[in-house]
Amino acid sequence: MCSVLKKALNKRATALACLRTLGTIVAGCVSTRTSSFASSLPVVHPQMQVSSVNNVKIYNLSHGKSLPEWLSDRKKRVLQQNDVDIQKRIELIQDFEMPTVCTSIRVSRDGQFILAAGTYKPRVRCYDTYQLSLKFERCLESDVVTFDILSEDYSKLVFLHIDRYVEFHSQHGHYYKTRIPKFGRDFSYHYPSCDLYFVGASSEVFRLNLEQGRFLNSLQTDAAEINVCDINPVHQLFAAGTLEGRVDCWDPRVRSRVAVLDCALSSITDGTEVEGLPSVSALKFNGSLGMAVGTSTGQVLVYDLRSSRPLLVKDHYYGLPIKSLHFHDQLDLVLSADSKIIKMWNKDNGKVFSSIEPQANINDVCLYPGSGMLFTANEDPKMNTFYIPALGPAPHWCSFLDNLTEELEENPESTIYDDYKFVTRKDLENLGLTHLIGSPLLRAYMHGFFMDIRLYHKVKTMANPFAYEEYRKDRIRQKIEESRTQRVQLKKLPKVNKELAMKLMEESELPTRKKKKKGNVVDNLLSDDRFKVMFENPDYQVDERSEEFRLLNPIVSKVGEKRRQKLSQLVQQEEQQDEEEEEVEGRGSSEEEESSDDDDKSWVEEVREQRRLIRAEERERSFNQRKERRQQDRETSLQSSDPVRNRQQEPQRHSQPRFYQIKAGEEFRSFGDVARKQKMQKTSLEERLQREESSGRLNLNDTAVGSKQLTFTLKKTEKQRFQQQAERDHHEERRKIRRAAGHLHSQRGGRGRGGGGGRGRGGGRGRGRRPF
């Protein structure tokens, strides 16, 4: 199997070499004979986003449409053939993106491979610049904090994970995995001793020797936590940036600290405003004596290792932590990046060279060595590729970019027409210039035409000579409208709930300070369509005399009088405006609303007063009702049970007739009603209804939907019906067999119970009983 794979790989390598040779021959033929047949080929100009900052052109090679991953290869080819925007885009490296987010990006020292770590799911991707495509992809168990390439190519990789694991990869894949004591944030590799220095949420610097395969004694610092670290490539000085804003420098040969730089104090200058203590967030060496330090508050300090004071302090003015630092030796530039912007400036005087501001937040920046190309890892699936010709030439694997940029600079496309006016066909009809369509004076563009601005002004003046007068009138009208807005505006009150509308208007006009003091801002219900019916339908009128309103709104009684006066003034102003149909200038009320503190103090007393008044009204109402009932009872003439007395009172009634009117809903009251009610209470509901129906006293209540009467019968169970039927049968049987006992009455008579008058054995009761 291995021999088969080797043969297949050798054939593939041979085919690739042949293709490269053929491509070189074809490129030479094209370069020598371009002039003969270039005009016959369809030319598709590439589409790149070009920005110019400080006269430095920056080409965004990742700009353009991207095809979804879930599309099949066939659909992708169809879209590439039909969509012009996809044809014009430049896909420098195929599938140069992550599923969700890219966190770190690196370039191998030989320049052939670009490695990027991202999520989700956690993975690392390796791109081959010679093939301009993805070489391999490996999924990981957890997210990557940072990683580094220890070899010239991708054969030796080290990953630091967020769960304290350190993972080693070889050329074939995963090799080994170990764990450090604390959560790591950064690490550096010391090539002479094969030591890995890990820093993180600890005061110690952990050392892992890759030659011996074991941890060595840690370096103890005075810091609480360490954020970043770096090793000088010339003299191997190890530097660690701490949370307190200091940089500790160590000599790996003797494992002792040789110097300390206080960057937090040095980063604060006269014009610098920081929030909190600046901590070190980025660190980078330049040569043997240069070093740049980035802080968490957005400052970059450039040091000479021979001095404890910074040579230059550069502020990003965003207040964001510096995430990446790079040096460009050819132009003596420093490339510093935070999550918002990448700034390029001179390391000696701080003069800005250029800047790049991507659309997504930046996580990491990688500068391709010896060229003007840089890559960014963003909070976005796409990894941006920027090419800046001013920094250097394009890499050798994409040297065609120089030719493309030169062609774009020689043939710039003007997208802004300052000397032309865009007009539509309707504008041409209004100006009477439809006969110019098709002439060189009008250039067709989209849904209209471009014409010379001078010709447009001349024709406009000739077609409408009174344009200045119209413009003057419009300006005067605008001035009048602006002056009207400064006047006191009349308030239009609705027809329903005027006092509630007045209250809402006053609360909406309160200053912001008073609104905050009250605790909440009252929304204007008058402008809300959901509550429009409340101010239009009379059924929603608030009854201020009801008990609920008086208890829930105790403060209304205090400010109600002022609101009524103001309401009457507004009604009078509206009537005058309707009669005169002219604008009326009013004067705003100078009375101020009582403070919320006084309202809060008097709220409890007002509620108590309202409750006392309501109880007094209820007592007075019940007393009047009892008084009326007693008066009706006294005036009611009752008929006596003595017939003689009735005959004596009859002439008096005829001589003094009295008439009484019984009101609706009242009953005739007499002393006999009490006994009748008690008797009626003992009867069932069915019997009471039958008696009232037979006597004609059954009342039918009239409601809004008509008179209603409820008739119902109780549904009995089968057991109850069986028991009642058995009782009726038993009583009927007893009634049939009962014998008369009249012949047993004593001849002597008497009212005694027994016939013999005693309780003896021979005697008995008055009623005979059948012995069982």
Can you summarize this structure?
Belongs to the WD repeat NOL10/ENP2 family. The chain is α+β, with helices and mostly antiparallel strands and 772 residues long.
Description:
The protein is of the alpha+beta class and about 775 residues long. About 30% of the residues lie in helices and about 25% in strands. The protein has 18 helices and 34 strands. It has a five-stranded antiparallel β-sheet with strand order 1-2-29-28-27, with no helix packed on it. Strands 3-4-5-6 form a four-stranded antiparallel β-sheet, with no helix packed on it. Strand 5 (about 125-130) and strand 6 form a beta hairpin.
Distance between the termini: 116 Å
Radius of gyration: 52 Å
Order of neighbouring strands in the sheet with most strands: 1-2-29-28-27
Helices, by number, come to 18
- Uncertain spans, ≥5 residues at pLDDT below 50? 1-9, 15-45, 516-522, 581-595, 637-641, 752-772
Helix content: 25-40%
- The total count of strands amounts to 34
Subcellular location: Nucleus, Nucleolus
Domain NUC153: 528-554
Domain Nucleolar protein 10-like N-terminal: 48-411
Family: Belongs to the WD repeat NOL10/ENP2 family.
Descriptive key words:
four-stranded antiparallel sheet; alpha+beta; 772 residues; 24% strand; disordered C terminus
Describe the protein's topology.
Elements: H1 2-32, H2 34-37, E1 49-53, E2 56-60, H3 73-82, H4 84-88, E3 101-107, E4 113-119, E5 123-128, E6 133-139, E7 144-149, E8 157-161, E9 165-169, E10 174-179, E11 184-190, E12 195-200, E13 204-209, E14 214-220, E15 226-231, E16 238-242, E17 246-251, E18 256-262, H5 263-266, E19 280-286, E20 290-295, E21 299-304, E22 312-315, E23 324-328, E24 333-337, E25 342-346, E26 352-356, E27 362-367, E28 373-378, E29 384-387, H6 400-410, E30 420-424, H7 425-431, E31 442-445, E32 448-452, H8 453-463, H9 467-485, H10 498-508, H11 512-518, H12 547-552, H13 556-580, H14 596-635, H15 643-655, H16 672-682, H17 685-695, E33 702-703, E34 706-707, H18 718-737
Antiparallel strand pairs: 1-2, 2-29, 3-4, 4-5, 5-6, 7-8, 8-9, 9-10, 11-12, 12-13, 13-14, 15-16, 16-17, 17-18, 19-20, 20-21, 21-22, 23-24, 24-25, 25-26, 27-28, 28-29, 30-32, 31-32, 33-34
Helix pairs in contact: 10-13
